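Support case: user asked for a sample of complex input and structure output to validate their parser. Sending the pair below.
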Amino acid sequence: MQIEEAKKTIEALTAELNQHNYNYYVLAHPTISDYDFDQKLKQLVDLEREFPELQEPDSPTLKVGGEITKTFKTVQHKYPMLSLGNTYSEQDLIDFDNRIRKALGDDFEYVCELKFDGLSMSLTYENGKLARGVTRGDGTKGDDVTTNVKTIKTIPHKLKGEGFPAEFEIRGEIFMHKAAFVKLNAEREENGEQPFANPRNFASGTMKMQDSTEVAKRPLDCFLYFLYGDNLPYKTHWESLQAVKSWGFKVSEHIKLCKNINEVLDFIHLFEDERFKLSFDIDGIVIKVNSYAQQQELGFTAKSPRWAISYKYKAQEVETKLLSITYQVGRTGAVTPVANLQPVLLAGTTVKRATLHNANEIERLDVREGDTVLVEKGGEIIPKIIKVNLDKRPNGLPPTLFTTTCPECGSTLTRTEGEAAWYCPNDSGCPPQIIGKMQHFTGRKAMNIDSLGDETIVQLYNAELLHNISDIYALKDKRDQLRQMERMGEKSVNNLIEGIEQSKQMPFEKVLFGLGIRYVGETVAKKLAQHFKNIDNLANASLLELTEVNEIGTRIAESVTEYFAENNHRLLIEQLKQDGLQFEVEEKEIVLASNKLEGKTFLISGVFEGFGREELKDLIEANGGKMLSSISSKLNFLVAGDNMGPSKLKKATDLNIPIISDKDLMSMLN
Ligand SMILES: NC(=O)c1ccc[n+]([C@@H]2O[C@H](COP(=O)([O-])OP(=O)(O)OC[C@H]3O[C@@H](n4cnc5c(N)ncnc54)[C@H](O)[C@@H]3O)[C@@H](O)[C@H]2O)c1
Ligand SMILES: [Zn+2]
């Protein structure tokens, strides 16, 4: 390659890799596979080796990929958090072993560990207590996410046992189990939120959240894999792993002390298949030289230790034929394309279907019925089509035109500017939407009507006893018809009606969530209910009033106003009101109500361990205080919790505004 051409290629690759790093680390929504990313990075490494004069000092080949954000406090790492050299080839491992052998002679051992596919975290403990949790960030500085880390149950707040150093740092990987991922991602999709591609992205997206109470709802876990400290009493990595286990840290049982590279390869071969039986994703095996002294001798490159390497498994993929593309309609009316495949064995299971996400994805892949496609099951649980084998495309295959009509009711589909999904607008006449809405309404997180399960709803819909949510509350007058149905004895009819009657006591926020307004998930419903207090206030709120609510963006606000603009929906709510459902927040009797805060102004910032922000706000107002929405000289007190933005802190300090804790606030009331 000529230097001119090399320069152009290097520039293009650099720009592309920087973008992918951003998608992966900051947005947690990568657009290419890890394998492709690694191939491109390797190409850049090779080019820079051939033309060293063209290497930029901030080339992605020299940097750890992540970034720090502005939303958390930045913390300097005491020991840099590096990346790991990686390879997909066994020959590279043998070369690695030869390099080590050359430097150390033959007397050394390796430790093999699973390469957990999550995000790395540095935890600092002081006198046996968790002091800090910091992300890798750019490798030298990271985000202080301590409050989020504290919600992870397997990370000890306080150590047990003895012998731990007064101060040390421990590194590990935060991840989400596959089962939790599948469940939570399905909920996201149901709420109209963008699903995450895999558990890693979900875990990483979660750790970036500002609201720790949200983080606490998402089950994360953490394996620890490296101990750092000054003058540690251990000579080897293996020994230290045993010690940290005894202090209460979770260390994977799948580790192996190896005498030579052949034993390492055995471990790698073993997990080639075993990895699919684990409850969490791994993307490879990490191989580390065991002795600390030898690690020191080997040292580091700019980006990774020379004493460790990771072997990555290629995502499993297989070719098969795309028989047809069909469309599914969800509860919200979103139409999802599904690829129906010639059944094929992949990663231990028979795959018949793959997701195609939306029209953009079909266009991107240019996938057509009759094509031969490459299907991948990597970290992801749901197989997906990664590309079309164009060499095998029969002549004259017509391009796929995304359906323009609903496969269930024939309505013309609509799409909002800027959104990926097409929707069937016929929400009161499209069977899967009608059924889905009722199922959502009776679901565990909404009205929780146990006795009216998903199957029963379908059965009653088919028997024309249910068409609409409000019909549920009319079932009590249809006992005779109910009793005639299959599998419906006197007792189950009684149960059914009783469950329905009981649901009338469900609080407003559950009813609101149950209505299934697009983008109004559980948390949003709670926020809206607390803010507007009753359905009429909410229904009459303007876009501006809606977006003024903390964490309600324009997308949600628009969806809410659209919902209430429809007469059908207003009629439904009127009917449900008459049926006796809760459409206002039950005013909690605030025992503390007084006028102790009269004439004083407050602003709340950050997160609190014992209180929700809304709760504090209610408390302040119930005691005569007034809330302000920004920091100005008019503000009397800033009630600050964890994770308060640094700019707010500075502004308050500059204006000399007293910063108080939630506990200080409580004592003002006593
Ligand atoms: N698809 C994309 O767009 C995209 C973009 C950027 C990066 N990536 C992927 O991420 C990789 C780079 O990420 P990276 O720099 O974090 O490297 P890496 O993930 O390949 O290896 C380093 C990381 O491994 C983790 N790890 C897991 N188990 C471990 C164990 N037992 N011991 C030590 N560390 C362990 C640690 O978090 C450590 O930071 C790339 O190779 C690529 O595959 C993909
Ligand atoms: Zn339809």
